[in-house]
Structures are given as C-alpha cells and as structure tokens.
Design brief:
Chain lengths: 400, 134
C-alpha cells in the first residue's frame, strides 16, 4: 500500500479524450474483433483523432481480441506499446493505470483501451457450463479442484455464498438487494441504448422472479451482453487541444485483501472474512493518490456483476460503514437525486455487461455533461472494477 | 450428484496430498510448523512467517456451517438442481474452510455442526464431503 501521498506521479496528468461503444445486444451477429474495431473508431472520432495517432493499445486478459489484431484491423501503423491486465472485470480500471504508465514514461503518447465480448451469443461468462471441463478440473495452481467438483462453478454461486454471509453478519435483506437492482433499472429506463431501457422493474417484479442461487434471484444478476467499448487516453495537456472536454484521471489503484489466499475467484469464499473486499485496500490507496475522499465523490459507477457487489463496494470504498451497505442502498442515496447516484446509465444490471468498460464510458459522459440521465453538477466520479479476487478503482474528474 | 461427476485434478504439486488422504478416509490441511498458521488453499511457503517449514496435518473432521447456497438454476450436467453448496469451517483449524455438496434444499442453520464423510466418485478420486452432524 502507498503510504506517501506524494509518491503517485499520475494525478490529473492524463485524460480520457475519446469514448466509443457499439450497440449492446443479446446477439451482435458479428465477431468480437468487428465490435472492438467499431467501438475504437467511434472513440477516435469522438476525440477528433485518427488511427495514426494511436501508438498504444491495452486490453483485458480475457479478451479474445489481441492488441495486435485490433491494430491490424484498425490500420494502426505506429503501435509501439501494448499490455494486458486483469483478471477479468478488474481490468478496465487497471487499464487506465497501464495507459498512464505508458504515457508518463514516454512509451506511448495516445493509448486505446478496449473490451469486446459476445457475452451472450458466444462466450457466456455466467456459466453455461460449456466452458468448464467435462471430466477432470482444476490443478496447475488454479486451486479449482477444491471447488468445481462440488458444483461451485459460477460467479453467481460465489456471490450467493457471500450474500448469505453478509445477511448473517449484518442483517442485509432481500429488499435491500432489490433496491440496487431497481435503482440501476430506473437509470437504464432513461438511457436509450440500455438493454433494459423499455422495461421498468418493481419490487414485486424483483421478488416474483425465479431464484437462481439462494438468496440471489434473476434480477440480482447482471445482463449477459454482446458489445464493445473503447476509450482513448492521452496526456492532459494534449487532451486540452482535442475535440471534447478532457476528463482527467485523478487516481488509479488496485488492492488485494489482507487475507492471503491463492487461486482465482472461488477461494474468496474460504477467506476468513469473505465479504471484506480487496476494494477496501484499493480505496485506501486511491483516495491518497487522487487527493480526495469518498465525501467528495459526486457519482459512482460501481461494478455491479450482482446487486450484492454494489453493497459490498459501498462499504469497501468508505461511503458507509462495514455492514451498512444494505441500508445505505435502500435509503435512496444511490438513485438519481440521491447523495451518490450510481451506475447512471443502468450499469451491468440494466445497461449492458461490457465487463466494466461501459462504466468508464458512462463516467466520461457524465463529467462532460452529455449523459442521457445527466446528473447536474457532477464533477467527480469513482469507477470500480470487478470485486474478486482483487479490487481496482479510478477517480475521474472534470477538467477545470 | 449425477452419474457423470467432475473429477478433481489429483496431481497438482501443491494439493495432491489432500486427495490422496481423502482416498484413505483422512481429512488433511496444510499448516506452518513454525508459526502454526493453517494454509488453505495449501502452499509450500508460509506467507505469515516467511518460512518454508510447512506440512500436512490431519483434521478430526468436524466443523461448523459458515455459509450456503441452494442452486436452482442448472449450469452443468454433472450437477442437477436443486443442490446445496456449503462452506464449512474446520473446528481444529478455523482458517480452513472447505466446500461440500448436499443434494436438494435441506434446512440449514448458520454455525450448525457439520461432519466430514468421504465420497468415492465412481471410477475416480475421493472427495471429502460435509453433512449436518448426527
């Protein structure tokens, strides 16, 4: 953890200059490379840049599009820096860190960050079972042999075990979980490109939906989506001369939980304290790096793979005390007009699941003042990445 | 469980002894001989004291229920729903929590006593499993 708040050299030195996305759908009918190309061209056009301006490309470790393939598809001639980060949905926030590092060290001038997936029509992360072994599983340091043979095989089941424990420890309720799903849906209802734009969600709808893995129901789960998002990052100085107002990257931080466990997602449920996220450590570092605290955050895009992940991150990043994430969410604070509107385009629960990248696009829209459900006066935005097994986070700030 | 279970890999260099012991009807966990921390998932190096003096220890096979979920949406043919996943904390090593699989949707209570049993998968390895203590 960073103890010296002057050590971080990146505060407000780089900016997002362009954002782009494809439509979000259940079946894009296209390759992920095609989706990534469209989102990237849209981000470049938004910034007023061309493919010749790109010299760096970063991606998520689980993306099947490589930086080199995307460069080839786009016609980038000057690729001199690339990087992968992750794991999975942790990647988008960490990509901002890779981009800053590349730009401030002189390895790149303008970096393209992207995530592209056919998460419904081709590779269902939610666990169709098709991506798992059919005979022998685990080994090679994954630790999955302790989990998969018992039938623990999806993120939803993992978060269900965490939800149960949070309910036991803190009295978190189904109604509080529902309040997260409903807030995100209300925001999606005002966002034309959101997959759930035309579908209101009531508490009765939530309670009547089928159980998936107790105590989590259908609407506790994010969407499975096809789509891509891309973001162009460059120095703040250069961004000032471009087409759109720059949105500064004030701080970036990852964090691992204090409880040391090997493996990927499943060992989280065997931590001593399974609901204490790595995000808590990320937040402690992030606030020092960004030079502001949670009370100065106007809006947040919190990684909502499940409703419970929002509740846990409200606690981890210090918006409320440990155990109070449920009441905080249910108070209305996270809705439009509340003290901390979250997932202002509908989030993964209702806008689309682009594995954290649509949260960054939404943050930039809000801080430029061009969001569909614009939060008036929003000047700072927290974005968080996937919460397991480690956390990641970024503070974005409107340029003065 | 169905007739076509998922077999655990039993040749991983950090974890194979767990499954070898299970085949003999013993439950074991890794621990540090120097600082006495239990290490799960098992590692050869102790991250708490920094030493390499770690070894397998035998558990008495009793624990308590830490969390559970009843899965009602099937995602793999090996696991017909409903089934219930349990996370059990070992009485003799609270830092070690292990998974168990119960058929159906049994009534469970947090912290209830659980006991280990050993499930020999058909023509395959043996899994330590957990059920409410008799």
């Amino acid at each position: 953890m960073l103890d010296d708040e002057t050590a971080f050299l990146g505060r407000d030195k780089c900016a997002v200059a362009g954002i782009g996305q494809t439509a979000f759908s259940r079946d894009s009918g296209r390759s992920v490379l095609s989706l990534a190309t469209e989102a990237s061209l849209a981000a470049l056009a938004d910034a007023g840049l061309s493919v010749d301006d790109i010299d760096g490309i970063v991606r998520a470790d689980v993306d099947t599009v490589t930086p080199y393939s995307l460069a080839a598809a786009l016609g980038v001639n000057n690729l001199s820096y690339w990087g992968d980060t992750g794991p999975g949905g942790v990647a988008p926030c960490m990509m901002m860190g890779l981009a800053i590092g590349a730009i401030l060290s002189g390895q790149a001038k303008t970096v393209l960050a992207f995530r592209s997936l056919n998460g419904r029509s081709e590779a269902r992360l939610g666990g169709s079972g098709k991506n798992l072994g059919v005979e022998t599983v685990g080994g090679l340091g994954t630790n999955d042999e302790y989990y998969l043979p018992y039938g623990l095989m999806s993120a939803g089941q993992t978060f269900a075990l965490m939800t149960r424990r949070h309910m036991l420890d803190y009295g978190t309720t189904e109604e509080q979980l529902a309040s997260v799903a409903i807030a995100c849906r209300e925001h999606a209802n005002q966002t034309p490109h959101a997959q759930m734009q035309a579908k209101p969600l009531s508490l009765d709808d939530y309670m009547a939906a089928r159980m998936i893995s107790t105590p989590l129901r259908l609407f506790d789960f994010c969407l499975e989506s096809d789509g891509a998002c891309a973001v162009v990052i460059t120095s703040a100085e250069r961004a000032r001369d471009l087409r759109k107002p720059p949105v500064l990257i004030s701080g970036v931080a990852g964090g691992a939980p204090p409880d040391r466990r090997t493996g990927m997602m499943f060992p989280v449920v065997t931590r001593n304290d399974m609901t204490d996220l790595g995000g808590r450590r990320a937040g402690e570092t992030l606030w020092k790096r960004a030079g502001i605290g949670p009370s100065e955050i106007d809006i947040a895009q919190l990684y909502d793979c499940f409703t419970i992940s929002v509740i846990l991150q409200l606690e981890a990043y210090g918006f409320c005390a440990r155990g109070e994430g449920g009441p905080f969410a249910a108070s209305g604070a996270i809705r439009q007009g509340g003290a901390l509107p979250i997932n202002t385009g509908g989030g993964h629960l209702s806008e689309g699941y682009v594995h954290g990248m649509n949260h960054i696009v939404q943050a930039v829209r809000q801080l430029r003042g061009e969001a569909d459900m614009q939060i008036e006066g929003a000047e700072t935005c927290l974005v968080t990445g996937g919460p397991l097994p480690v956390g990641s986070s970024v503070v974005f700030r409107k340029a003065a | 469980m169905s007739a076509h279970p998922l077999f655990p890999t039993v040749t991983d260099r950090e974890t194979h002894e767990f499954f070898e012991a299970a085949a003999e009807g013993r439950l074991v966990f890794r621990a540090c001989n120097a600082c006495d921390h239990a290490l799960h998932p098992p590692t050869a190096h102790c991250p708490y004291c920094g030493g390499w003096n770690t070894a397998w220890r035998q558990s008495k096979g009793a624990g308590k229920l830490h969390s559970w979920t009843t899965v009602t949406h099937q995602i793999h043919p090996a696991f017909p729903t409903p089934y219930t996943l349990v996370v059990v904390e070992l009485d003799d090593a609270p830092e070690v929590r292990l998974m168990g699989h119960l058929d159906g949707a049994p009534e469970l209570v947090a912290e209830m006593p659980m006991e280990v049993w050993f499930q020999a998968l058909p023509d395959g390895p043996t899994l330590p499993q957990w059920r409410p203590a008799a």
